[in-house]
Amino acid sequence: MPTIEVAREAGACYGVNRALELVRKAAAQAEGPIHTLGPLIHNPTVVESLAQGGVTVAGAPDEFLGGTLVLRTHGVTPDEEARAREAADSVLDATCPFVVRAHRAAETLTREGYQVLVFGEAGHPEVLGTLGHAPGATVVERPEDADALELGRKVGVVVQTTQSRARLAELVRRLLGRTDEVRVMDTICEATSERQAAAAELSARVDAMVVIGGRMSANTRRLAEICAGACARTHHIETPDELDPAWFAGAEAIGVTAGASTPQEQIDEVVAAIGRLTGATCASAPAAGEKDGARG
């Protein structure tokens, strides 16, 4: 009989759970409207659920005047925060503590005169927020992109929290020897690293792999890339209704992992749906974000 195994580290991290708790508590207590500045997390199912509870998404700080405005987990620029505090009656900061750490690192490097490189995805909300804390910084999306950069004497690197350390190491390798000093502020979230390692280990020994999470989620896409490198039958889904029985034809071992914006109930729903489609039983209890403790 086929089995389903969930990665030992999978699903919502501390930062996401913290943000959801803050917002749901605020929504239950708020007397006026409550909005999030951009989607709170990159999970359409959760965002829709929040909307049904009265928490809507604002595209700009002053799109809705008054009420409570929530700063998303990915963080915002100092200008956006200032505008939010002017436009809203109150502001709730749900920025992930690890993203805040990246902001502080960017500020430190800028203040100390480094040429700042932000290693991450151009246009991603987290990267945009970090750039706001380091005026003049350059985004480097791929390690090889650094080869074309003209470097000064002092180069500082701050990292999008969902990047992998292997990619960071490759970037640093390409910088060394081309400048007098390279200072790396390793702002990768430890929970992200643990999820990536667990996904790599599981995908290497299963016949089919399912990765759960929003398609706009950088950390989920990274998990899907890692899994696809070890298991050709890797599929990235957002909801159980995307599952295709053909994906699991002949599979004896089915692996499941989930991005850091995926609550445990969504993992449970997908595992149950795979079981109904294949007759497979779950070989291990789903591992969720509670293992992260106080980490993000």
Automatic annotation (TrEMBL):
Q: Which InterPro entries match?
A: LytB/IspH (IPR003451)
Q: Which residues form the active site?
A: E126
Q: What is the top EC class of this enzyme, as a single word? A: oxidoreductase
**Co-factor: note:** Binds 1 [4Fe-4S] cluster per subunit.
4Fe-4S as a keyword of this entry, yes or no, is yes
Which residues bind [4Fe-4S] cluster per the record? C13, C96, C189
**Does the record carry DNA-binding as a key word?**
no
Entry GO MF terms? 4 iron, 4 sulfur cluster binding; 4-hydroxy-3-methylbut-2-enyl diphosphate reductase activity; metal ion binding
- Which keywords does the record carry? 4Fe-4S, Iron, Iron-sulfur, Isoprene biosynthesis, Metal-binding, Oxidoreductase
Highest taxon of the source?
A: Bacteria
Amino-acid positions noted as binding (2E)-4-hydroxy-3-methylbut-2-enyl diphosphate in the UniProt annotation, renumbered to this chain: H42, H74, H124, T161, S217, N219, S261
Q: Where does dimethylallyl diphosphate bind?
A: H42, H74, H124, S217, N219, S261
List ligand-binding residues for isopentenyl diphosphate. H42, H74, H124, S217, N219, S261
- For this protein, the Enzyme Commission number is 1.17.7.4
Alphabetical list of CDD domains matching this protein: lytB_ispH
Looking up Gene3D superfamilies in the UniProt record yields:
3.40.50.11270, 4-hydroxy-3-methylbut-2-enyl diphosphate reductase, catalytic domain
Query: A single GO BP annotation from the record?
Result: dimethylallyl diphosphate biosynthetic process
Name the cofactor(s). Answer: [4Fe-4S] cluster
Catalysed transformations (reactions): isopentenyl diphosphate + 2 oxidized [2Fe-2S]-[ferredoxin] + H2O = (2E)-4-hydroxy-3-methylbut-2-enyl diphosphate + 2 reduced [2Fe-2S]-[ferredoxin] + 2 H(+); dimethylallyl diphosphate + 2 oxidized [2Fe-2S]-[ferredoxin] + H2O = (2E)-4-hydroxy-3-methylbut-2-enyl diphosphate + 2 reduced [2Fe-2S]-[ferredoxin] + 2 H(+)
Q: In which pathway does it act?
A: Isoprenoid biosynthesis; dimethylallyl diphosphate biosynthesis; dimethylallyl diphosphate from (2E)-4-hydroxy-3-methylbutenyl diphosphate: step 1/1; Isoprenoid biosynthesis; isopentenyl diphosphate biosynthesis via DXP pathway; isopentenyl diphosphate from 1-deoxy-D-xylulose 5-phosphate: step 6/6
Q: What does this protein do?
A: Catalyzes the conversion of 1-hydroxy-2-methyl-2-(E)-butenyl 4-diphosphate (HMBPP) into a mixture of isopentenyl diphosphate (IPP) and dimethylallyl diphosphate (DMAPP). Acts in the terminal step of the DOXP/MEP pathway for isoprenoid precursor biosynthesis.
List the HAMAP family hit by this protein, alphabetically.
IspH (MF_00191)
Q: Which family does it belong to?
A: Belongs to the IspH family.
PANTHER family in the cross-refs: 4-HYDROXY-3-METHYLBUT-2-ENYL DIPHOSPHATE REDUCTASE
Q: What's the protein here called?
A: 4-hydroxy-3-methylbut-2-enyl diphosphate reductase
Q: Which organism is this protein's natural source?
A: Parafannyhessea umbonata
